[in-house]
Amino acid sequence: MPIIDVNDFWTQALAAIFAAAVMLLVRPQWLKRPDKPNAAPENSSPQVNNHGGNQAVLTSNTVKGDIHLDQSYTDNSQQLTIIQNLDSAPAPTTSDDSGKMVVAFVAAILAACLFVIALPIFAAVSIGTVGAVALMVIVAARRTKRMSVVEPGKRPAKWPRKTLAAIVIGSLACATSMFTWTSSVSLEREGMSLSTIAASIPKLGAEARIQDFPDYVMSGVLPAFFGNGELTLPFVLFLVLGAFSAFILTILAWREASEWHSFLRFNLGSRQSKRTTAEARAFRDGGAASSVVAAVVTSGVAILCSIGIPYDLLRQLMR
Question: Among 73, 151, 215, 247, whose Cα sits 20 to 30 Å from the Cα of 157?
């Protein structure tokens, strides 16, 4: 059975390209330009509703009126029914969590081993995802700037604060991801690093079959993994936490960029899909400060884990 070489350049390049394509095509509406001069609105007479007086609907390259994002899809009666049914539901019974703890511990060990073995692939995927997010933010910023041009004598549009928040979060995600992976690869404690742990794990032969994987993991991967030191597992798990936090931050930045593009879609008219409308409302009404704070906290967790601060604290507690 052929084995994928995770250290091969083309394997890593394909992983990065695939990850970027997934991020870019999950919500492909951003590929359609809402700022074309010949873009005809879907509704020739869109309704106008001032929401705070600081958002504007944009037709071609000029600002005309207020943006309309108040199409309602909420059924209050159904919402009330759901709340009443939830309140009258019986309380869940307590259960023994010992089995869940065992499963979580085994999953942590397997995740740590997989992280070490496939580290180059994970790094390539991270590069691809942050590259896709950076592209989406840049395109949204350029479109926003182009549509902000108004005729002489008219007031320019006041954009939601989340435009700046999306730029900050996107930039933070790119910087955090690059720093996290660079620091994680170079981090070393007591002669232990990701490279030395990966080098100690035996390679699976090309002639191996699928049924050989359990024996390979039990007799090859796990003994070699834990043979690097008694704190190998927490050392790797903290790095996994840092990489996962950086990925969560990238997803947060992608969501902000996607909502930004959904907001710009209303330049074409008020008739948009429910999902686009929901994302545009979230971008218009969402708290910019809370989004930035959440991004900063997530970035801090990723950076601290990647430079070994939690591991050092654990070592201090064990002395």
Answer: 73
The total number of structural domains in the chain stands at: 1
Residue of 56, 105, 66 lying closest to 234 (CA atoms): 105
78, part of any domain: no
> In whole angstroms, what is the distance from residue 170 CA to residue 249 CA?
9
> Does residue 90 lie within any of the structural domains?
no
Query: ∠ at Cα 46 (41, 48), nearest 5°?
Result: 135
Distance CA 217, CA 247 (A): 27
Residue 221 per-residue DSSP state: I
Per-residue CA distances from 61 to 58, 70, 88, 167, 283 (Å): 7, 23, 54, 22, 21
φ, ψ dihedrals at 272, nearest 5°: -125, 170
Asked, for residue 58, whether it belongs to a domain, the answer is: yes
Note whether 158 and 51 are within 8 A (CB): no
Helix (H) or strand (E) holding 189: strand 188-189
Flag whether 41 is in a domain. Answer: yes
Gyration radius of the chain's alpha carbons: 25
Query: Over the stretch 94-106, which tens digit does the pLDDT of each residue have?
Result: 555 567 777 787 7
Is-contact 144 269, C-beta < 8 A? Answer: no
Global pTM reads 0.71
